[in-house]
Amino acid sequence: MATKSTPIVMTPAAKGKGYSGYLQRDLQNAAPSDLEILQAGPGTPMGEYMRRYWLPVCLSQELTDVPKAIRIMNEDLVAFRDRSGHVGVMHRKCAHRGASLEFGIVQQTGIRCCYHGWHFGVDGKLLEAPAEPSDTRLKDTVCQGAYPAFERDGLVFAYMGPPDEKPKFPVFDGYVFPAGTRLVPFSNVFDCNWLQVHENQIDHYHTALLHNNMTVAGVSGSVADGVTLQGGFGEMPVIDWHSTHSNHGIIFTAGRRLSDDTVWIRISELGLPNFMQNAAVMAAAPQRHSGPAMSRWQVPVDDTHSIAFGWRHFNDEVDPEHRGKEEECGVDKIDFLIGQTRHRSYDEMQRAPGDYEVIVSQGLMAIHDLEHPGRSDVGVYMYRSQLRDAIAGKLPPDPVRARAEAGHEETLPRYTSDTRLKILRDANNEKDRENIRKAAHEVFAVMKECDELPHEQRRTHVLQRLNEIESRF
């Protein structure tokens, strides 16, 4: 089992002093720490924990009339859709003599190896071995490694954990409400470890800095617009992180003042191990109250590469002005903010850096022992602590998983939301920010009240309670 390394200590002579490159030079070659939460291969603590959840492995549009080779969780796999419409996710090397099933032949049922014609069902059972005698016992003794898989709204999910612990797939109400919601799949490839990508979503302070206050030298017009977030995203938020779901995730509230009489409360939620739902991604709180704009999973490819798979949510509630562009979502592309993918020139990256540049530039595996965290990093360190507790077995059962298993509701409640509140600005800036903080806490409390309500009652309940919050301010 990988263990946490001994923390790196800066020499006393280098602390707080300028021109200390010589004194700190050895730190540049430090080895990654926190390997127990960074590495996700078979047999690793994080790898085994993550395998107990449904994970996206590719987009449905990537499954054509030929198989697709994929690498997920340090495993070489092949994904395909047979001619009956069933999805298969298998070990890539054929159980017979090791030929790759990426060159296999998709069948009416299952897939056939091109080398000797061994035919496997989507569950890996050997259906036919044409070069063997008709009474061969191979069908009883050989099984191709395969994982349960299914498709939903353009994403292919696989369960790679112990067969007898396979959970139900949790369906949040934001996937289907409001009526007419369209979930459009996307993926983004990152040339670095999965954790540093996922952590970036917890750090909402960077939205006011990286995405707004940066200098866009030599970039103009639509390109400059594309690297900045619109509306209130430029305001430094008032942020709090709340450990929820029996420490199986983090809810974070970000409050911003939009005008002298309007405050925007943005709530996003992170669920262990690698799930995230985000509120508005185009502009500040488009309406009185709206739900998720994006759901995503950060899935390890191996220890130094990962892929974000997810859905952009399109509906008139979260995007009433129709700024989102469905056609720009897909394989390794997303429709908001330039700088989310690797598909730019180095010059463009330098002049208008985005999320991709700052995440990947941390290195293939970010070295946590070299960090100097501040108050703005509380959420990141809470998340790492939750991951350590999870792999150590210190957390109670996951309540989201339990609710899905119990069929408590057709859909599970979500906290992710954008809310506009009429709250007059206080002349005292510190008092005003404290009022924003209190309002955010109250909105979060209202969202929690929906836990036990049927989905058709949740929105009405929230809107009524928001009126009560405003009256108190």
Task: Please provide a brief summary of the model.
This protein has helices at 21-24, 35-38, 45-50, 138-141, 194-200, 221-226, 346-351, 355-360, 378-391, 399-406, 429-449, 455-472; strands at 54-59, 68-72, 75-81, 87-91, 105-106, 111-112, 119-120, 126-128, 146-147, 149-152, 155-159, 182-190, 238-244, 249-259, 262-271, 275-278, 289-290, 294-302, 305-314, 417-422.
Descriptive overview:
- This protein is α+β, with helices and mostly antiparallel strands and 473 residues long.
- The protein contains twelve helices and 20 strands.
- The strands form four sheets. Strands 12, 13, 14, 15, 16, 17, 18, 19 and 20 form a nine-stranded antiparallel sheet that branches. It has a four-stranded antiparallel sheet with strand order 2-3-4-9, with no helix packed on it. Strands 5-6-7-8 form a four-stranded antiparallel sheet.
- The radius of gyration is 24 Å and the shape is globular.
- It starts with 20 loop residues before the first helix and ends with a helix.
- The model is unreliable at 215-224 (pLDDT under 50).
What's the helix and strand layout?
Blueprint: H1 21-24, H2 35-38, H3 45-50, E1 54-59, E2 68-72, E3 75-81, E4 87-91, E5 105-106, E6 111-112, E7 119-120, E8 126-128, H4 138-141, E9 146-147, E10 149-152, E11 155-159, E12 182-190, H5 194-200, H6 221-226, E13 238-244, E14 249-259, E15 262-271, E16 275-278, E17 289-290, E18 294-302, E19 305-314, H7 346-351, H8 355-360, H9 378-391, H10 399-406, E20 417-422, H11 429-449, H12 455-472
Antiparallel strand pairs: 1-11, 2-3, 3-4, 4-9, 5-6, 6-7, 7-8, 10-11, 12-19, 13-14, 14-15, 15-16, 15-20, 16-18, 17-20, 18-19
Helix pairs in contact: 11-12
